[in-house]
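hey all, quick one before standup. I had two proteins in the batch that finished overnight and I want to keep them in one place so we stop losing track of which output belongs to which input. First protein below, input sequence then structure tokens straight from the run.
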Amino acid sequence: MTEENVSKPDCVREIETFDAISSGAWPDACDDSLRAHVATCTNCSDVVEVATALIDDRDAALRHAPVPPSGVVWWRMQMRARNEATQSARRTVVAVQAAVFAAVLVIALAILGGAWWNKLPHIDEIAASGLLAAAQWGVPLLLAIAIWLTLAPVAVWLAVTKD
């Protein structure tokens, strides 16, 4: 095995070395024992070389980063809040519309089922049991509920719009 293929063992002071570099204490503000250790440890000297280059690049990027004016930041924040509110309202409207569609579908099936039920040969027995009377009162009630569910999203939309 060559020396390049063998990984170096980790040093217990690598984290301490990196912390000193990232906090800006390297090399002047750190203790002498750490500087002496880095001079003898290849892992820590590699950490110093790489981390110093990365932190210098980060600091240079921060110094040259374009900062937008406060008015632009405020405008973007307002637009984002408005878009999020619009999406939330759309989700609510879609959910209500889906519920209304399901209710209308159930009502339509009930009406069609009632028309089919009337054509059964045993209609006299059904009328005698009172189920036909319940079906007759149930259809107008279901229609009233369907109309209310259809108009409810419009009422909510009118109530929450500010314009």
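OK second protein, same deal, sequence then tokens:
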Amino acid sequence: MTWRDPRSGLAVYRPLQRKTPLNKRSARLTIQMRLYRKEAAAFLAEPEHATCEFPLGCNEPSTSVQHRRGRFGGRLRDQRYWAGSCAFHQDFAETRTGEALACGWLLRIESVR
């Protein structure tokens, strides 16, 4: 949007000023995340998921859900590929993805809808 400065007469670019900020999430994703948080808490409370499920062994308590095939789209709440994870192995999957795929902690996502 351009306008003319009344004092100098020059055309000045001024970005559109929003009256309200954009939403960080859509209404649909907000509802999905609300449901996901409840399901994830219940999942981690189950005895079989109380400790980290890292395939090479770990005895730390689970603090988060590892989405072994990703979490975008319909996979966010698909519990078939969830695993309990400690903070260290959650970070391991994020920072060393190739090693996590090689040891079986992460699964390839191409073949799953």
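Flagging for whoever picks this up: Residues 48-113 form one domain. The two ends are 43 Å apart (CA to CA).
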